[in-house]
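Appendix B, example 12.
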Amino acid sequence: MAGGAAALAAAAGGLAVLVTLTAVGWITAPHVGLGGGLAGVLRSAGVLWLVAHHVEVTVRGVGRIGLLPLGLVLLPGVLLERAGRWMTHGGHVTRLRHVGYAALAIALPYALFTGAVAVASRTPAASASLWQAVIAGFLLALLAGGLGAARALAPWRKLAALLPPRPRSVVLGMVTALAVLTACGALLAGASLAVHLHAYRQAVTSLSPGPAGSALLLIAGLSYLPNSVIWAIAYLLGPGFSFGLGTGVAPSASALGAVPAFPLLAALPAGTKAAFPPWLGFFVLAAPYLAGALAGLMTVRIAPTPTLEAAPLWGLLTGSLAGVVIGFGAKLSGGPLGAGRLASVGPSGAEVALVAVLEVGVTAAVVAGAANWLLLRHHIRKLAVPARQHARAGLAPAAVVPQTRDETDDAGGHRIYYDPWAGQRGD
């Protein structure tokens, strides 16, 4: 019952925010045709709430709308994270091993609620996918609610310490690679928008949104910023992305057709030539290799291995996992905009993942192997210093007195402990 109350509170909070934004848009621009007065506003807000869970919408006469803003997922994600924290603060969860139960207690009723909203918000003009609503609601509540419950019980450092050294090194190395690529992608997206600022202003002026419409347009642009960062990462990796059938945006050149009048799309590079000079292109395209190098270094620094052949394999695993995550994000960042020419928008998840594995993964493997070899060499030299000092002083190396004897012929593997000074006591 506590999980159901937390799920209902999180869902109601998200719906309240989106109903308010939808009502503002309906009041300031009644000609958009939400239909049915207040009932139409509520249904539209319900569809928008499902879009915040990355649920596709089918519009009659247009087709599937799958190019959804990833930034809008933060709204239900934050509310569900707070719901997980409330479960712990209310005394329902006191141990980390019970976090999974708390997450399930929130996720199951939340999934039922998202399915109910998908059914209730259907109209002859538009309908959200029911199965996507149930699955997306369950997964988002499970992850965000579980994270909130875990974070309320322990800080990040303690949660990371729960992992053994080897898995922790792989996870932190993967996070390092993703952080570097995200920072470079955000920098590239922001630079492109700054270069095309004049086109952005022209797009806003052509829409004539008014004060309230400008605010809503700004919110819409901010909600698509994570999509633009992922597209910029795909651009850095090389495959780029498309904006319609027969189009492509890549570091070498771009081929774009007609683009919708959305101001954020003004940042797309257009032209048959490269968007930047060769000297700058070298630094731009070197970002994935930098991410792989730091990932391999982080993997080895946390958990070095005495086997030289194993370090490159762990680095390759770290970079490959980062590539898979990038490919999954590329898949989520794109989608169709109807059944016409814009049926294919965004990067290809499979291509981006494969190229990321080749660039980030291989670089991480090489750097991990080299760093592990240097680290072992440094420790060997450090251990050899006392032996050389004893040799120069004419002293024999300190003898190591054995304290245990391992009887390997014994099936039980028992150990015999003895006192090496027993014969000196005169017993």
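The chain has a mean pLDDT of 83. The chain has two domains: 2-161, 165-375.
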